[in-house]
Give the backbone structure.
Amino acid sequence: MFELKIERYSTITLVHLLGEMLLDDAVDLRAQLEQIIKTTNAKDIALDLCSVQRVNNSGLGALVGAGATARTKDKRLMLYRPSGAVLQCLEQADILGFFPLLEDEEDLLARLSR
């Protein structure tokens, strides 16, 4: 089970993911992320993953699919403060470089000031 909380700014849309990224929710997660990507005016979408403690390949697949959709819309899906569990899954799947990373609030504030 997960919940998305959205903050919209002129240069970036910040999406907080609360919950888990597992098989049961992967299709819904991808659909919701793609809807945000399609409707935001911002070029950058930062997905805050600091609270995600459980993730599996289905959850990663949802992220990759949403990231690909963002690229087709000339937008960028970035991962903001990914938890250790998320980083570990990204590394194990060898897709860490697929997403730009914003490691801390300083990185995010730099995007907001553009």
Notes: The mean pLDDT is 94. The first strand starts at residue 2 and ends at 8. Helices lie at 26-39, 57-72, 84-92, 105-112. The first helix runs from residue 26 to 39.
